Structure formats: C-alpha cells, structure tokens
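--- STAGE predict ---
source: upstream dedup step, 1 unique chain passed
mode: sequence only
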Amino acid sequence: LPAAEPVASIDKSFGTVYLLGENAELRPTPGLATVLSGQTIVTGSNAGLAIAWGGGGSLRVDENSRVRFSDSERVFLEEGRVYFDSTPGLMAGIAAGDSPVFRLETAQGAIAHTGTQYMVEVDGDRLIVSVREGEVRVDGRYHDQRVAAGQRATLAGSRRPDVLGIGRSGGYWDWVANTTPDADVDGWTLYRFLGWAGRELGLTVHFEGGAEGIARNAILRGTVDIPPADALRIRLATAALDWRLEEGVLYISD
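--- STAGE serialize ---
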C-alpha cells in the first residue's frame, strides 16, 4: 500500500468529528489539523468542517456526512453533503491556486468541475448535484449529465437525470456559511470584503450612487469570526452604507 500523505488541512471544525478506525470504529478527533490520504472523516449531528484542499480550493463538509480522502486528487463521498469552491484566491486564509485538481466521487458517479462552486449530496441511492457558479460534469453510473450554474440535477438509479432551476443563495445553501473559516480582513478594503462575503453567501453585489467609492476607500481592521451574513451587516453599518437584498442581489447605497 502507498504511504499516507497529507492531502488537506482543517481550516474550521465544530461539533464532533470522527476518524474511521481500521476496524470501522469511530474515533473522536478533537483538534484534527491535517487530513491524510486513505483517511475517512465522519461528522456527527450539528458538526461541520472547512477543509483547505492541498491542490487549492475549499471543501466544506456538512453534518452527518462520511468522506474518504482517497489521494491528493480524489475524495469519495459515502453519505451526506459536501460543497467545493474551486476559486480560493477570493477567500481568506486559503492559498491561491489555479484550477485545483479535485475529483469528487460517489457510488452513483463522479463529478468534475470547471471553475465553480457546487454542492453534492448522497442520500440513499440518490446523487444530487447543485451548482452555484460555473459548471460541473457528472459521470454517472447510468447517465452522464452537465450541470450549469443555477441548476440542480438528481440522479437516481437508471432513470434519466432530473434537472431543475434553483437560486444561488438562501435555503438549501445556508449550511455552507456556517462552515466559513475565520477571515483575517486586516488591511482589506470594504470593497474586497464585500466580494468575499458575497461569494460565501452566493450573492451578487451591486453598488448604487457613491457607495462603490466609499467601499474602495474604507479600510478594515481585525478578523471576521462570525457568520458572513452577520459580518456583512455590521461592516456596512459601520461604513454608514444602506443595503437591501432582492432575488440574490445585494444592493448597496450611500
């Protein structure tokens, strides 16, 4: 067997997280910092992880999920739900990288991405793939399917994939923001921060009046260690900017 090697590191962890032992026992691992190839991570109820993928990008793991880290390029989702953001250059605390090599595999098929944010859920014999940005290709056991931004595809058994339109924010995506790693925003402009928060929340940012100029000149201090939506409200209030949210667009005005 090849020797285990580091493939990812833990950016954020909450709740009870286990490593699957050699005899299929679950071993609690508080303080886990590095993920090795061949390891299987299991999250309990009300638990979650943000994982900096070694090749670039951010992998988020929801509660009640089981993920096997096959090697430096592949992850196998046995059950539960994960999210992957392949553009880490816009994110805090994660090294920048171009088009990270990351392949997400399941018993129902494998998913390859094209510069994107997407979510994958394994629920029994169903594979559900939702795309927030970019596009993914599903190489299914019975059918292949391309899924574009704003679409969700469900593959179940040998039936043709069912594809429907979805929003990029709220509801189904809310758990992702709970796994957002702390961000060191010291020295950032408010404009940069808004781009980061918008990406975490699946929102498009639109400026009105003189708001963009204010955002580009306002310099932030400190660290964001609260959910992005809360940080967004606080930072905008501090800058005396008004905002409203309409159909996935965050309008900011002076």
